[in-house]
Automatic annotation (TrEMBL):
It is an enzyme of class 6 (ligase). It catalyses: (6S)-5-formyl-5,6,7,8-tetrahydrofolate + ATP = (6R)-5,10-methenyltetrahydrofolate + ADP + phosphate. Belongs to the 5-formyltetrahydrofolate cyclo-ligase family. The keyword Cell wall biogenesis/degradation does not apply. Its EC number is 6.3.3.2. This is 5-formyltetrahydrofolate cyclo-ligase. GO terms for molecular function: 5-formyltetrahydrofolate cyclo-ligase activity. Keywords: ATP-binding, Ligase, Magnesium, Metal-binding, Nucleotide-binding. Its cofactor is Mg(2+). PANTHER family: 5-FORMYLTETRAHYDROFOLATE CYCLO-LIGASE (PTHR23407:SF1), ATPASE INHIBITOR/5-FORMYLTETRAHYDROFOLATE CYCLO-LIGASE (PTHR23407).
Length: 195
């Protein structure tokens, strides 16, 4: 039986939501160790991440590590006028936060804190699942596929790097024409590299 994209989403989300809090904590620490090895993170000045939800690999320790390295961090905000698109706003300990329509915390919209996506060095992308060829399965809104399309077409701009638990890997995902494969995905135990 061939699983649909929705079936994969259900199965993988269930698996990651079953991870014990101790496992989640250790995974978040291991993620920092993995990312610290990558020249992309060592050389970056502007890094977009996301705040974890729904059992995603916890990104807070990575964000705090980036702050200690003197890097600026940014979080995605759902664009208020351009449907299906993201803005990226500067994020630090004092950033006022609100909940978006998906009940995910994001910075309160402030035009002075927006960075054009092309000025980012890295966009860390959330994902539900990924396969052995670098294809990423998101939640289905297409926000990151739209954001990464210019990079995919030209090879220029911020480098997308996926972050995931090891249990989110599957051999092969069903893909669609609009899906943007990732050049690199970091899990607590491995750096997957397709460059």
């Amino acid at each position: 039986m061939v699983l649909s994209r929705q079936d994969f989403r259900k199965q993988i989300r269930f698996k990651r939501n079953q991870l014990h809090s101790d496992v989640q904590f250790q995974a978040s620490m291991d993620l920092v160790s993995q990312c610290a090895q990558l020249t992309e993170f060592q050389n970056a000045k502007h890094v977009a991440l996301y705040l974890s939800a729904d059992g995603e690999l916890i990104t807070t320790p990575l964000i705090e590590w980036l702050w200690r390295q003197g890097k600026k961090t940014y979080l995605p905000v759902i664009h208020p006028f351009s449907q299906g698109h993201l803005l990226f706003l500067h994020y630090d300990q004092n950033t006022p936060m609100v909940f978006n329509r998906y009940y995910i915390a994001e910075p309160k919209l402030d035009q002075t804190q927006i960075i054009p996506a092309q000025q980012l060095d890295i966009i860390c992308t959330p994902l539900v699942g990924f396969d052995s060829t670098g294809h990423r399965l998101g939640m289905g809104g297409g926000y990151y596929d739209r954001t990464l399309e210019p990079w995919f077409k030209t090879g220029h701009g911020p480098k997308p790097i996926g972050l995931a638990h090891d249990c989110q890997h599957v051999d092969k995902l069903p893909i669609e024409s609009w899906d943007i494969p990732l050049p690199k995905i970091v899990t607590p135990s491995q750096i997957w590299d397709w460059e």
